Amino acid sequence: MNHLLTLEIQEQIKEFLKAMKDPVTFVLFTKNEACETCQMTQMLLKEITGLSSKLTLIEKDLVSDQQTAKQYHVSLAPSFVLLDKDGVYKGVKFNGIPAGHEINSFLSAILDMSGREFELDKESIARIQKIDKDVNIKVFVTLSCPHCPGAVSKAHRLALLNPHIEAEMIEAQTFMDLSQKYNVSGVPKIVINDTHELVGNQPIEAFLQEMERL
Amino acid sequence: MFDFSLESPKKRVMIDDSLLYDFLVIGGGPAGLNAALYAKRKGLAVGLITKDIGGQLHNTTNIENYLGFQQLEGKDLSAKFDQHLQQLNVPVISDAQVIQVEKVGEIFRIHLEQDRDIQAKTVLIATGGKPRHLEIPGEKEYANKGVSYCTICDAPFFKDKRVIVAGGGNSAADAVLDLVPYASEIIVVHRSQWRADKILLDKLDKLPNLSVHLDTQILEVIGDSHLKGIRVLDKLIQQTRIIAADGLFIHIGTEPNSHFVKHLVQFNERQEIIVDTHQMTSLPGLFAAGDVTDQPYKQIIISAAEGANAALSASHYLTHQYKGE
Q1: Which CATH class is domain B147-250?
Q2: Residues in chain A whose Cβ is within 8 Å of chain B
Q3: Interhelix angle for A122-130 vs A148-161, to 10°?
Q4: Residue where a domain terminates, one of A113, A130, A149
Q5: Which stretch of DSSP H or E encloses residue A183?
Q6: Which residue from A7, A51, A160, B260 has the least number of CB within 10 angstroms?
């Protein structure tokens, strides 16, 4: 079977993944029926996993492995979460294939989850860690959107910094019903706890203001 | 099949905050990247600060007028520019927002977010532009409820819908082509006549589901919870009417990202930075290139050329005019 990633891109990603500190595990949920992009997502994750010895892929079926799905709050397919070196779910999730521009938020998430330090001032970190309510952040994207990966990465970093926060990318075209439910007609669109909305690649400060208002 | 738009996964050389740079470029579009290339080759101590490598290239699907490339996507040209620059190890800050630039004696101080300060003998402003708004009632209200400034981002939400493209330049014509795979009907509305290239207009001529309303000014965006259409003035017969639609894609040019040097240099009435033939602004040692300048034709190749001009001029300035140590 053909590869999704060209040899050139494989090499670039391999080089990029050398910056990983600790191992990271993907848990991928697919289903057999009515899932156009499940197979492609599975291929992508397999290929990426093959590019670093620090990556592991666990494959689950959304229908027959409901308990695991519940554990990671997964209800869509394809959907996958990233686990840290101890196998802990920290609220970093992708719904739909992170192809196109979104490959960048996927790679960032891997490095961040592996323990790479990211630049954020102490004051913001303190404010993020102070949030004590459960927060769910949905970031709707399209794969042709150049501003979207930035928004996704920020949301994922918030999740990494606070166990109360869960952040998920949602590929809008794959999950059109969900996009319509949340009235998405422009991306990136950020929905916090189903009620608060932000549009565009907003700074961390904007996320913080919305979360502190919850 | 999916493609993958990988952004510079290589490790970049970091900018050293303790160094006094010869030439510091602010902006990572064609003007900034080409300036950094030329400056580095001249042997200047150069650094680049940007929010986004590639800049407005990322908003362009198809590029057919960059000499040497018959047809390629904006993100691919951006990747090629970036690869070229990485070979030369130009230090880059790739996710920083510049808050202010000031000149103290002969030295420029660039204040970044998170309390970072970088110093340089000369500076290039190559911060490009952001989408210009129509500034009409309803536009803000229906932003992301039907109004979009990024057609390649948002076109998929308008499958089998009726959409309007506002504008008459190349980017409006490109937006029409980006919408073709999705929209059932496309209506172009422009206040004067087409300015787009003939070769693009010839392509539009072949589209069966396109209608064009020239000399038509958009007065208002209307709708309920979502955009439902626009109210326009037909300038030839001086009558207003409603055009119903589900989406409005606005491509009427750019507004320069020039606010952070407002206190330093001379501007024209469009808030563009006025430059001389050497890309120098009214403040010695401060250069500007690309869409942020008063140069009227906003083109990739012109921006890149202005970047080269700025770098060579800065090099000359450092040798002959710079009075500091």
Answers
A1: alpha beta
A2: 4-5, 9, 12-13, 15-16, 19, 40, 44, 97, 99-101, 103-104, 107, 119, 121, 142-149, 172-173, 179, 183-187, 189, 199
A3: 70
A4: A113
A5: none
A6: A7
